[in-house]
Amino acid sequence: MKTEVSVAATFIGGLLSSSDSLTGDQLQIFTHTLTNALLEHYQHHWFPQAPCRGSGYRCLWINCKMDPHKGKAASAVGFTQEQLFSSLPAELTLWVDPYEVSYRIGEDGSICVLYKSSPLRHSLTLTSVELFTLSPLCISL
């Protein structure tokens, strides 16, 4: 779970870094705070034996309102939810599931995979987050 959550938090931090809204230290605090908030939130909703179970609970979204976990991380660096909202895509969906993290920008956008593993290789093989944030695998719907 820690790997998937770290990938998701790092991805959101990467989106924020491209907007030049936060310093490097603020981004690090934001990512760390978001990681811890999500680990706590997902603690009893993580089912590696049935990865789709609880996926709605683990889905992070930004549309008309801010996901509370990202809002908590924003306030940790003195960023208002409005500032955070304006620094991220207007419509972002992020799925954090056992063995896979994927996202979609826009309602009709392609689904892009940031991280993918298998149950057998999960503890042995970790893929670089930077690799996936630079060239995610996208699936058109």
From TrEMBL:
Pfam family, one: BTG
Domain called Anti-proliferative protein: residue spans: 88-107
InterPro entries: Anti_prolifrtn, BTG, BTG-like_sf
Listed GO CC annotations: cytoplasm; nucleus
Gene3D superfamilies in UniProt: Anti-proliferative protein, N-terminal domain
Highest taxon, organism lineage: Eukaryota
Single biological process term from Gene Ontology: negative regulation of cell population proliferation
PANTHER family tied to this protein: ANTI-PROLIFERATIVE PROTEIN DOMAIN-CONTAINING PROTEIN (PTHR22978:SF40), B-CELL TRANSLOCATION GENE (PTHR22978)
Family (UniProt): Belongs to the BTG family.
Protein name per the record: Anti-proliferative protein domain-containing protein
Species, as recorded: Sinocyclocheilus rhinocerous
Upper lineage: Eukaryota, Metazoa, Chordata, Craniata, Vertebrata
